[in-house]
Fold this sequence. Notes:
Blueprint: E1 4-13, E2 19-29, E3 34-38, H1 45-52, E4 60-65, H2 75-85, E5 86-90, H3 101-111, H4 116-130, H5 145-157, E6 163-167, H6 175-192, E7 195-199, H7 203-206, E8 211-216, E9 219-225, H8 230-244
Parallel strand pairs: 3-7, 3-8, 5-6, 6-7
Antiparallel strand pairs: 1-2, 1-4, 8-9
Amino acid sequence: MPILQIKDVTKVYEGKVTHRALNQLSFDVEEGEFLAVMGPSGSGKTTLLNIISTIDEPTSGEIILDGMNPHTLKATELAYFRRRQLGFIFQDFNLLHMLTVEENIVLPLTLDQQPLEVMEERLASIVEKLDLTSFLHKRPNEISGGQAQRTAIGRALIHSPSLILADEPTGNLDSNSSRDVLELLTKINQEKRTTIVMVTHDPIAASYCDRVLFIKDGEFFNEIHKDDRRQMFFQRILNVLSLLGGGQVGDLSTIRLP
């Protein structure tokens, strides 16, 4: 059974001009899948993430996550659900600057009032996996962008969520740091079978995933699955992006994978 089901989700924003951000969008995400969501600016990608993460409500349709619809929960249950089941990775890291790297990572466990020994045990395993030891006691403004994003990944993983939602996680990183972060997410996905849904505009980032879902004007446009050769998958992603248009692609025909 899929870990996440998006069923006929529509999101309409009322205003002077009514804007339909999502229109009867349906798809499933299997447990352990690494899914990229792509589409032109304004296609509804961020709205979709916000609805999955329960920050926003669908106008109609429903989301089933781990067999339940989180949008039916009361506020306190919802906060608990979000803290327990979901991990978040953002483009701008969203780290708290007054806390050290270590304190930022254990924050979800602190909020959950977990015992100290649980925190220490989880932290030790995350630090080793993500190679964070050398800057654990520094603050976010004392580390590089790549290190900050690794810290954010540590925070997203510390409570073993069912689903990680990543919004342009490599958007503020140089190509080397981007590759490190994507390889890290791939490793987490493969070793821990952690399900990841990643919004990205970057075809190189998308080529690390198992499947790429394309949306346009809030509707399903296309999807492609990974094959054995990443270069071929990358090329197929570029082909769909050129069909999608939206001015985000430019001339990608000459790009080779790093």
